[in-house]
Amino acid sequence: MADEKIIQRPALAEPGLEIRPMRAADADQVLAVYQAGLDTGQASFETTAPSWEGFDAGRLSNLRYVAADTTTGDVAGWIAASPVSTRAVYAGVIEHSVYVHPGCQAHGIGRALLTAFIAAAEDAGVWTIQSAIFPENTASLSLHESLGFRVVGTRERLACHHGVWRDVILLERRSTK
Predict the structure, then answer these.
(1) Is residue 88 pLDDT above 80, yes or no?
(2) Is 12 exposed, middle or buried (CB count within 10 Å of its CB: 0-12, 13-18, 19+)?
(3) Chain-centre distance for alpha carbon 8
(4) What pLDDT, on the 0 to 100 scale, is given for residue 104?
(5) What does R_g of the chain's alpha carbons equal in angstroms?
(6) Domain 17-128 falls in which CATH fold?
(7) Which among 6, 22, 31, 150 would be 20 to 30 A from 78, CA to CA?
(8) Residues 129 and 96: beta-carbon distance below 8 Å
């Protein structure tokens, strides 16, 4: 994969929102959106958002975006990638997470974030984007499938979450470049 230079790609979003690279100044709002998503119980096995230091350390600096209000700067959603391996052969394979504040869902924010992210990932030399989604999160599954992700399998009873053993659907998108 190319070095971690920042690649900014425009994306369509609803009027008044911009998709832009995530900044350290966004930390509190990004983590608040993350926690709001975790609080739904449908986003991750995690139950508490990490510190900014933990978030920052686990994600690639060149593939992080926010959907922000153009007037107030408020963050309505974010998307970021993590490497799947430190081995050079997997340099073009990443896993991503996308979170939209529950109060802002169904407005095309997730689609705008994911569309911009896919373009930036391809520009950065990524050939495979992976994701793991709970089967109950039908909106996220539908969004991913509509943008070229395909289901590659189900990990059954992967982990216990709030006292329930949960399955995870694995999806991937291969670059068209």
Answers:
(1) yes
(2) exposed
(3) 16
(4) 83
(5) 15
(6) Aminopeptidase (3.40.630)
(7) 150
(8) yes
